[in-house]
Amino acid sequence: xxxxxxxPTKAEAQAWAVAEEAAILSGARGEYPxxxxxxxxxxxxxxxxxSKTASTSRADNLRFDAWLRxxxxxxxxxxxxxxxxxxxNWRDARxxxxxxxxxxxxxQQYRPVWTIAVKQWKWAPKSPWQEIRLPAKAHARRRxxxxxxxxxxxxxxxxxPRVAPSTPQQQAAWAMLVxxxxxxxxxxxxxxxxxxxxxxxxxxxxxxxKTEALIGARRVPLTSRAVRLLRxxxxxxxxxxxxxxxxxxxxxxxxLYRKLRDRTMIEGLRFHDLRATALTxxxxxxxxxxxxxxxxxxxxxxxxxxxxxxxxxxxxxxL
Length: 319
What we know:
The protein has 319 residues and is mostly helical. It has helices at 10-26, 37-47, 54-70, 72-75, 84-95, 100-121, 147-157, 168-182, 186-190, 212-215, 224-239, 250-263, 271-282, 288-295, 300-307, 312-318, and strands spanning 197-198, 203-206, 218-221. Strand 1 and strand 2 (203-206) form a beta hairpin. The protein is elongated, with a radius of gyration of 25 Å.
């Protein structure tokens, strides 16, 4: 809506224009700036996504890129004019391409754009996400890695737990080994270094991690087996005059691991499944509170329902 007014002086007219513009931007007039979804996403990236850990922000940005690229009509629409029908059309289109779990995961990333746009930026009166139905959360994965599979992948990469990795492929295999003995995430493993790992105290100081906002810096206890592995990486880093244990990025690790897994014809084993494998093995040795301290979980239910994957047959064999 166009607004006009006359004032006795130029200074008063400019002050009125500034006040009107501020009122519009704050939503006080019941009007909202004509900012598109693409503009909202870019601002959200700067203010929120870029402050996350490198691996998380990379994954989020890849989803945002795909969303804006694959749905240009939605991306170019004014944010406060986007309706529940628009989002329902996006949901239905995505369900023809990916699983309900993937759609739910994407929606959980996109919804906060509206939350901050409504509450802080005053770019829209409300979020249309409240009016659409999303797919139900799928059952947790039950896949774990078997040592037969792990040894096959190590042989294919030419890697040995007694010999430091000399190629990027071998570094990816070593990251897999460390994951199995520490139950850590990929990004946490690749950030290990001589300055953050204390092999004498068997502790890894981890200032940046997924639940940092809730629990602050983590101090991850290391098993004796993990320490034996890490001594090999520590010695290599010292010889080569670097602090970091690994020289590959998380993105490179992902590609290299997938190639290694597919080359050995191992089906369905994701790198993150190794974290669940390690926690399942550790659950036989420590109590649940200790396990949560190792994994960094603040929600015991998530630890039990998602990462504890011992089979009923294995449990029955111990009874």
